[in-house]
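Action item from last week, closing it out:
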Amino acid sequence: MAEKFVGGGGGGGVIMLLLLLCATFLGFSMVGAEDPYRFFDWNVTYGDIYPLGVRQQGILINGQFPGPDIYSVTNDNLIINVYNNLPEPFLISWNGVQQRRNSFQDGVYGTTCPIPPGKNFTYTLQVKDQIGSFFYFPSLAFHKAAGGFGGIKILSRPRIPVPFPDPAGDYTILIGDWYSHNHDILKSILDKGRRLPFPDGILINGRGTGNNAASFIVEQGKTYRLRISNVGLQNSLNFRIQGHKMTLVEVEGTHTIQTTYSSLDVHVGQSYSVLVTADQPAKDYYIVVSTRFTEKVLNNSAILHYSNSASPARGPLPAGPDNDNDYSINQARSIRTNLTASGPRPNPQGSYHYGLINISRTIKLRNTAGLVDGKQRYAVNSVSFRPADTPLKLADYFKIDGVFRVGSIPDQPSGKKMSLDTSVMGADFRAFVEIVFENRENIIQSWHLDGYSFWVVGMDGGVWKPASRNQYNLRDAVSRCTTQVYPKSWTAVYIALDNVGMWNLRTEFWGRQYLGQQFYLRVYSPVGSIRDEYPIPRNALLCGRAAGRTTRRL
């Protein structure tokens, strides 16, 4: 990975004054002049990979599968130049990076034009007021099933206290279900309106089991941070380490109460940080990942290798929990915010009393599956998303009529027959909303909202009712960007809509997302001020009906 680091704030008062004056006259300052910059050059190609022992066509970034980690610190500016050397358009999205005031950079088709084959595009991101563990992934054409994903680490600034000692090491662990078929075959199945078969295996950092297994080296007596992300396509996974306990310390940017677990359910699209101490006799131990809530259980194992190991890992793989909802839902409820710990800023995470704010709107979202014109589709509130010919954010910015209609998806289940539409829901800037995810199907769901974190205030079986609010956690619910909804159950979240833009709300069950189970939340401010939203990037790619227009003069 080509990465360059340029520090800020040391150029002298005169230069700083000039920069501030320039920003004032231009009417736009995308990033703070005092915040450091990190530069990345990524070359995206196809290449042969063998994760399950057979040759496949994978997506490589700088020749790597998975892609390189992004290492950053709160408020860093990330300048990522992506060269698309695939024979088709390509986009990368940044799961959990909030893109404050800047949904143009979100990297999904509703906000960003694809990078044409043989061309490049430079993303300009700022990890503004964020810490934690996240990942990036390719968002178009079912490319996610071919790779192109990697970890994102956002560390706290040196002057901000962290509620645990510095670990001896910091490992990214990307887990996910995987198919032995190339992604274009899977895409073809979906395009024909059919469901995908059950996956063929599980990967740990792009590797299968046996001689190809991933290995993580530790020194006896030291403590390590493991950042675990489920980058798979549909299945919830359980993560555990033979003979070792895990202390949860962070979930998608929130420092948590430090609870110890013997195993951890990681639902698709989610990220967790745990601390593991190498406090066992010097040998190797199995790291095990297995599917949850599936009739056929897939397993994979990696190795926790003590540097002074005297023997290889032995014995049966440690068993995971039974496939019942109760264990998993009780674990989910036990994950709570550490109210006294600092987040990205020095003030405690508990200083924002979300439970005392009046709800201005309740949105209920129900997922369904069905057929439209004889083909399999998936929907939210009976509307299955149909991509437009132009990114919605560009159509909104240039005021191009006929691309989408605000209100094309209702904010309550309609009970109507499933239909196709370019579904966009409107929402007011600075509203404080409640979203209830209703899952009446027999599958486990996982929902993600770009641009935001939300408080997961409640989850339970059955049907949500207004009286269900009596069981909400209004004090220390975890704030995150991806939440699970158990079968025949509901999950409720609170969101402060403080980030203007066009934001993708989607299932992380990727075949369902591809076949319509998503929509866009248009958080709108009528003021049109750069205090609320940045203008379009000067280098923005323009496509569809936005082609031929101009962004901003240099």
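Closing note: The longest helix spans residues 13-26.
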